[in-house]
Design a protein that fits this description.
The complex is a heterodimer.
Chain A: E1 5-9, E2 15-19, H1 23-51, H2 56-81, H3 87-92, E3 94-98, H4 106-114, H5 116-119, H6 126-134, H7 141-146, E4 148-152, H8 176-185, H9 188-199, H10 206-223, H11 228-231, H12 236-248
Antiparallel strand pairs in A: 1-2, 3-4
Chain B: H1 5-28, H2 36-57, H3 63-81, H4 91-105, H5 107-130, H6 148-165, H7 167-187, H8 194-216, H9 220-252, H10 261-294, H11 303-323
Helix pairs in contact in B: 1-2, 1-3, 2-3, 4-10, 4-11, 5-8, 5-9, 7-9, 7-10, 8-9, 9-10, 9-11
Classes of the chains: A mainly alpha, B mainly alpha.
Chain lengths: 252, 329
């Protein structure tokens, strides 16, 4: 059964995961590529039509070959020129890679595209879809043969940690044992949610802001009970901000 | 693990941003030359960031930071461990050297493809002889149900006129249709050989039956004049596509080898692609000849000329595949 990521361990022993493209995104990319092919052929046709009266037979032949060349060669040419991306893949943030997380070589891109006819059997890419569903790295037959995978392109989004809004005084830090327990008990998902809420608080509507921080504060308060003097007079938002600061930093 | 996140981010961020900038530049221009100094810097930044990733991996609450560093390390890994093939392709050299060498090197797959196709032809010819009275049942198209002598009359009188007006379109149609069939045959190699076996054998049966039909009706000369000019290139091209398909099949089957299937497949890529490239060139030639030459019959073009042309082509093809690219092999 398919997994969500391509797990790699570097020679230095550092493990990391590259997210694999989902079936929906790949299908959308394919539709965009088909539309792009249609647009190229239509544009080409209108150019050739202008010369059709001069030599109708020759132009007719050229149109047939251009259509065939574009529909067959589009994927190969685009993926080689754009480092594993076609227009559809670029718009959807996908890329073809070697399954060892290296850039795919031109020969691999040619093979995966030449094997498209067998993936599209009997209709609507059923063989390809079934193979993607059954294989660990969501590979269609062309990908299996070429040793390639389709991944989501990694954009390194830097977290703006300076926006945590650290306050000069954090009453929760007066209780280091409880602060350590809060770090220990808080699940990464909840910590991430709280961090997101703090970082994006200015984007929230006032009512939503109150509601979101109320929920988060309640969940965080359940983790550890700080003494009353440390938390009294703190609004839900202030409590969450102080908790996030504790969760994301050990410095005093 | 005790980690002062403030300090960790403060110290690490400049090099993470520098690594991000270097990687973004390399990703935008994947085929550009990278200097030694820049590569050394990239490697140093990548190793430091990998070490940073290892430090935060143990911290369960640092999901966002871990994700950020993971993405940098994965991009760095791809950039450092990927090898871009900068060898300039020589199309001329490839066709004259790599293609015939690949065909010779993979003689086993070629023999299998030929056996299936010509075996099918023999079966088709035999079936036609045995079932001559019910010959219509052998042909899938209504056009072939009529007697060859009647078709010859129709072809020589009417078709030459019609074809002459649209040879360009006809040629293009033939090229794209045959290339599509060749690509499909190759792709079917992934069906563990079932697809190319069925396709080559059934096409052979069909060809054998049609050829025998013409021979039995006394139209051998017409058949040779019509088929040889393009057929001696087109049919070997389809057989060669079958050869490339069986290379795929051969790589899929373990046959006692320990190498994983991916490695076995990658080992046959160069030969399979060289053969398919040669097939494409052959089919372009066959399409042009079929549209501009094969469709003209006597009295426009004497059969002897057409047959001599076909025999010459066949001799040239065999000599090319046998002898070209021998130097330094």
């Amino acid at each position: 059964m398919a997994s969500d990521g391509l797990e790699i361990r570097t020679p230095e022993g550092v493990p990391f995961t590259i997210p694999l493209a989902g079936a929906g995104a790949r299908m959308m990319a394919l539709i965009i590529d088909l539309l792009a092919i249609l647009a190229i052929v239509t544009a080409g046709l209108s150019v050739f039509r202008a010369f059709e009266r001069l030599a109708p037979d020759v132009i007719g032949g050229v149109v047939t070959l251009v259509f065939f060349g574009v529909s067959t060669g589009y994927g190969i040419v685009m993926e080689i020129a754009w480092n594993g991306q076609t227009l559809g893949k670029r718009l959807l943030g996908l890329r073809v890679m070697d399954q060892a997380a290296r850039p795919a070589r031109p020969a691999q891109m040619v093979i995966r595209n030449l094997l498209r006819p067998v993936d599209s059997l009997p209709a609507l890419y059923l063989v390809g879809a079934a193979t993607s569903w059954l294989t660990r790295h969501r590979q269609r037959l062309g990908d299996l043969a070429a040793g390639t995978v389709v991944v989501r392109t990694e954009v390194s989004v830097r977290g703006d940690w300076s926006q945590l809004g650290r306050e000069k005084y954090n009453s929760l830090r007066e209780h280091p044992a409880l602060a350590a327990r809060l770090r220990q008990r808080t699940a990464p998902e909840l910590a991430g949610l709280a961090l997101d809420a703090v970082l994006r608080r200015e984007e929230l509507a006032p009512e939503a802001r109150v509601a979101v921080f109320a929920i988060l504060a309640e969940k965080l308060r359940r983790m550890v009970e700080f003494p009353a003097e440390a938390v009294e007079a703190l609004s839900d938002e202030q409590y969450v901000r102080r908790a996030v600061e504790v969760l994301y930093s050990t410095s005093r | 693990m005790i980690l002062d996140l403030d300090r960790f981010v403060r110290e690490g961020e400049p090099r993470w941003q520098e690594l991000d900038a270097v990687l973004t530049r390399m990703e935008k221009h994947p085929y550009a030359t990278v200097g030694v100094t820049e590569l050394e810097r990239l490697h140093a930044l990548y190793q430091r960031t990998s070490a940073d990733l290892l430090r935060v991996r143990g911290l369960h609450s640092e999901a966002r930071l871990r994700q950020y560093l993971e993405s940098l390390v994965s991009r760095g890994y791809t950039a450092i461990h990927g090898v871009t093939d900068r060898k300039k392709a020589s199309w001329f050299g490839w066709f004259l050297r790599d293609f015939p060498r690949a065909v010779r090197r993979q003689a086993g797959a070629l023999a299998l493809a030929m056996a299936l196709f010509w075996g099918g032809s023999a079966v088709g010819a035999g079936l036609l002889v045995v079932l001559y009275e019910e010959r219509e049942t052998l042909f899938p198209f209504a056009g072939l149900a009529t007697k060859p002598s009647e078709r010859v009359k129709q072809e020589t009188v009417e078709r030459s006129k019609m074809v002459a007006e649209r040879t360009g379109r006809f040629s293009a149609h033939l090229i794209q249709n045959n290339t599509r069939v060749a690509i499909f045959t190759f792709a079917l190699g992934m069906t563990y050989g079932v697809g190319p076996t069925v396709l080559l054998f059934s096409n052979g049966v069909y060809l054998g039956a049609v050829a025998m039909d013409y021979i039995k009706d006394g139209q051998t000369l017409f058949l040779l004049g019509w088929l040889l000019p393009h057929g001696v290139i087109e049919l070997p091209a389809i057989i060669l596509a079958g050869q490339a398909a069986f290379l795929l099949t051969g790589a899929l089957l373990p046959r006692g080898r320990r190498a994983p299937v991916g490695e076995r497949l990658r080992a046959i890529f160069p030969d399979a692609l060289a053969i398919m490239g040669g097939v494409a060139v052959m089919l372009v030639w066959a399409g042009i000849v079929e549209a501009f030459f094969s469709q003209y019959h006597e009295p426009v073009v004497p059969y002897a000329v057409k047959i001599a042309f076909g025999v010459g082509e066949l001799g040239g093809l065999l000599a090319f595949l046998q002898l070209a690219g021998r130097d330094g092999e």
